[in-house]
Write a structure and sequence with these properties.
The protein is of the alpha/beta class. It contains 15 helices and 13 strands. The two termini are 41 Å apart. It binds glutamic acid (GLU).
């Protein structure tokens, strides 16, 4: 299986198999897999569950199902344990990103998360993401890390999502009842029948069981991300993946879905401003597929905020050439237009991004579409 950037979701059942603190039992093989991927030039983002389980024996609780604030306290203390546990398996640095659904819905925070992930990966650091359990009240919550992992795959523009837990994949029937039940190697369409089969394939510690894994797969494949449910407690699984095999259930990404994202940017997002570019920037965008730097901006009109969509024009011919999501508000862009990226900090006092519009957030309009 070929991939360049993957999100790997590791469930609580692997981080804390007995739900009483962290364990290295399964993480060693997962970490070795991540290191081998990195050595082969692939980029990996980890989404790790297990903070509540890791902190469980450090917070007094009298019930098998502690209250939400008690679980939040467990997560706060367990998160530290879990991060320390992960770091000991890597020579490269690990980093911690705690996010909520609220953060992903807010345009400016979404861009901050995207930029942070991009820079961490460029620096060979392993991003380790978990839900920010302390502040995640109901309406802010993703609720389970399977869906969080799918959202992280979208923000980071990953091409693959590996959901690791202690089950082999999706079975046609419950293998505990029917030991002959068949594992489904490939699912090309996620419909009610898939959810029904998923109901038969549950594991014991995970928050959402198989249902949230299928939901995550559905979100990911719709966006062109190949998704796999794999048994992370079986070291052979990683060997097989590295050899190009499929040891679990593969949810096949929808064809043309990547194009659909650009389609969404081009056709659905409303532009709130116009940016006129100099000849050098126009060439760089069209010919090299480059990002737009502040130095190439000649004029700005419209009032937009960071995260808004804007139209890009050639300043001399006034031809419409591209559309993209701005990293800066119109006020900040007006202050840095025509300037070198190195000057941004001096002018604005900070530099959230060296580019005005990143190439991943831009779609160039074909000549044939203009006329
Ligand atoms: N954020 C929770 C934790 O770290 C996990 C949620 C999940 O496993 O889906 O314990």
């Amino acid at each position: 299986m070929k991939f360049n950037r993957a999100v790997i979701k590791v469930g609580s059942a692997l981080v804390s198999p007995d739900a009483k603190g962290c364990s290295g039992k399964y993480l060693l093989a997962i970490a070795r897999f991540i290191t081998e991927c990195q050595q082969a030039g692939k980029e990996i983002i980890l989404v790790s569950s297990g903070s509540v389980a890791a902190g469980r024996n450090l917070i007094t609780h009298g019930s098998p199902n502690p209250s939400i604030p008690t679980k939040q306290a467990m997560a706060a203390v367990g998160q530290m344990k879990m991060m320390a546990n992960w770091q000991r398996f890597f020579d490269v640095p690990c980093s911690q990103l705690l996010i909520t659904h609220g953060d992903l819905k807010d345009r400016q925070r979404y861009i901050s998360i995207k930029n942070t992930l991009r820079i961490l990966l460029e620096n060979g650091v392993i991003p380790i993401v978990n839900e920010n359990d302390t502040v995640a009240t109901d309406e802010l919550k993703v609720g389970d890390n399977d869906n969080l992992a799918a959202l992280v795959a979208l923000v980071s523009e990953a091409d693959s999502l590996f959901i690791l837990s202690d089950v082999n994949g999706v079975y046609q029937q419950d293998p505990r009842i029917n030991p002959q039940a068949k594992l489904l190697p490939e699912i090309t369409k996620i419909d009610q029948s898939v959810y029904a089969m998923a109901g038969a394939t549950n594991n014991h510690i995970a928050t959402g069981g198989m249902k949230t894994k299928i939901q995550a797969a559905e979100k990911a494949v719709e966006n062109g991300i190949e998704t796999f449910i794999l048994n992370g407690s079986n070291g052979d699984v990683f060997e097989k993946i590295l050899r190009g095999g499929n040891p679990g259930t593969h949810f096949v990404a929808q064809q043309g879905a990547m194009r659909a994202r650009k389609h969404w940017l081009k056709h659905t997002l409303k532009s709130n401003g116009k940016i006129m570019l100099d000849a050098g920037a126009v060439q760089a965008l069209i010919k090299k597929g480059a990002s737009l730097l502040p130095s190439g901006i000649v004029r700005i009109s419209g009032e937009f905020t960071a995260g808004d969509c804007v139209d890009l024009y050639d300043a001399s011919s006034e031809q419409y050439i591209a559309k993209g999501i701005s990293q800066y508000s119109y006020r900040d862009l007006q202050r840095i237009q025509g300037q070198k990226s190195d000057e941004i900090t001096t002018i604005l006092g900070c530099c959230p991004s060296k580019v005005a519009i990143h190439r991943d957030d831009m779609v160039v309009i074909e000549k044939s579409e203009i006329n």
